[in-house]
Write a structure and sequence with these properties.
Two copies of one chain form a homodimer.
Chain A (H helix, E strand, L loop, with lengths): L1 H11 L3 E5 L8 H11 L3 H19 L5 E4 L2 H4 L2 H17 L3 E8 L3 H11 L2 E4 L2 E4 L5 E4 L5 H14 L2 E7 L6 H4 L2 E4 L2 E4 H14 L11 E5 L4 H10 L5 E3 L23 E5 L1 H4 L15 H19 L4
Parallel strand pairs in A: 1-2, 1-12, 2-3, 3-6, 6-7, 7-10, 10-11, 11-12
Antiparallel strand pairs in A: 4-5, 8-9
Helix pairs in contact in A: 2-3, 3-5, 3-12, 6-7
Chain lengths: 314, 314
């Protein structure tokens, strides 16, 4: 799946992933109105609204980008109906040949992580049968419990030729509270994120596809921390870096160069509300709520240009 | 909800939580057979099997213990049907007046953690209405992203009078890889779990109920690390400690004394497979698969005795 992702990045010339993180405040009124008319102001109504909203965006951008990243929390908040919309969104994106990165940030003790790995990337055994659960292509993983919480994901990645992105340095303001702590490392002192980056590199080296330069194991490093990105790019040469925090969280195109390799690969940049709620920004206000999907398309094109310029491609 | 938990611990004399973590290999044959006959060897069939299995256990133990802790991964692995069984299990346990701790280990950047907090503990806004998502009483939280990933949970806890248990020192063998790292702390060097314990204590102090000694904010510390438990008990005087790792993972009654306060409160010990799959152990084999729920009840009684003896109550 990492090789499919790379092929699609090359084809679209867009190392971009669209974050499908539908908050109700992003959903245009006409969609909410129709969904509530159909299902009432219920969890089912909310789920229908976010699904229709997602579908409009996917229809407008699927040919421009290699991948989407639905954030499961935005669906889980609506309980079971919300998670049904998560599943529909995954299935629809896969029908459009988009690579689907489930932003689930799961991680637990070994036997429990195995269940998460199976539920999101792999197949679960039921009697004599095997079934995919949610069936994403990639998922994000929280490494806080150490390697026995990550290894079940490595096993499933190797079996299914799928991938993970391990949280190394997250994009949020308080990510440094633990991740930047200087830890004793022999005689030296090293920030925790570098230690974790080193472990990701070891996991990456043992989880390589049969062909290609990049591992099934990638990392998450926020666009808001370009200096750390530069260091981590060097520590994890086999890992693709998933870069959140572009746009709404403050990351800019020029910040991104350090996350990429010299071949212009090695990173994929996420934007969520900057694309899916573009119509609520002044520069795309002309599209209005009815034109929200076209506004998303325009925002993807602008992001592609911004990143292309930063990488010296234009 | 923390005060309800404490009242129920006092009433049952059992600081015990039963981990409802149903793996298919634990489910007795007669239950699987009936579920597959009804729904086929499908995800729905698996979900029906784990629900019936849970129901039998809850019916056998609800009067003995204050709380249950379903591990969501064990349901999530079966996709949407599995999560429907998670919801049914929560609802059923609440109908038996059990305190429900959702072992979800969620945690993300601020706006995303807010969605998780709302989805598991709080109420989500849909138009003019508000709904509970999964509606647990407590949830576990992963603090790796720092305080802006935890604060949305504090807000919901205060509003709903519910609670969280923050992962501080997990029970698994590799928990030390990151959690035990010595980090620079002024002139001293302190293990990361102590730093996190200090932050939990600060969150606990700002999230107290109107009455009572314990905060809405607790911590997870594994029974497998009693020495760290002793230190953390002191660092977090306002926090209840949820102690996994008893039984199958190797923690023993005698290891538990350090997790409790002098009042015999302050900790609640989880056992999952040691109770729910008791019938598969030699000492309860006489119950057989058909008597699995009675075996669970016997295992709870033995655990109560073990902990009571360790705490000098018997």
């Amino acid at each position: 799946m990492i090789n499919k992702l790379i092929a699609k990045i090359r084809k679209t010339n867009a190392p971009i992933v669209v974050g499908l993180d539908p908050m109700m405040k992003f959903v245009p009124d006409h969609i909410k109105k129709a969904a509530f008319a159909q299902c009432g102001e219920t969890l089912e109504g909310a789920a229908e609204a976010i699904w229709q909203y997602n579908k409009g965006i996917v229809d407008a951008i699927w040919d421009l980008v290699p991948a989407v990243k639905p954030q499961i929390a935005m669906y889980e908040q609506f309980g079971l109906p919300g998670l049904a919309a998560f599943q529909k969104t995954i299935d629809y994106c896969k029908s459009k040949d988009l690579v689907v990165i489930g932003d689930v940030k799961r991680g637990d003790i070994g036997s429990t992580s195995e269940a998460y790995a199976v539920g999101h990337l792999g197949q679960v055994q039921v009697g004599s049968q095997r079934y995919y659960g949610f069936g994403e292509d990639f998922s994000t993983v929280n490494p806080y419990l150490g390697s026995d919480g990550v290894k079940p994901f490595l096993k499933v990645c190797a079996e299914e030729k799928k991938g993970i992105f391990v949280l190394v340095k997250t994009s949020n303001p308080s990510s440094g509270e633990f991740q930047d702590r200087l830890v004793k490392n022999g005689a030296a002192e090293t920030p925790l994120y570098e230690i974790i980056g080193g472990m990701v590199n070891a996991w990456a080296e043992e989880t390589m596809p049969e062909q290609g330069d990049y591992s099934y194991v990638g990392a998450v490093v926020g666009a808001t921390y370009p200096e750390q990105g530069r260091i981590l790019r060097r520590i994890m040469p086999k890992s693709f870096i998933l870069v959140p925090g572009y746009g709404a969280q403050g990351g800019k195109g020029a910040d991104l160069v350090h996350f990429f390799d010299q071949d212009g690969l090695g990173a994929i940049v996420n934007s969520s509300r900057g694309i899916i709620a573009a119509y609520q920004q002044e520069q795309y206000a002309r599209f209005g709520g009815e034109g929200y999907a076209d506004a998303s398309r325009a925002a993807v094109l602008a992001m592609r240009e911004d990143i292309g310029a930063a990488l010296g491609r234009l």
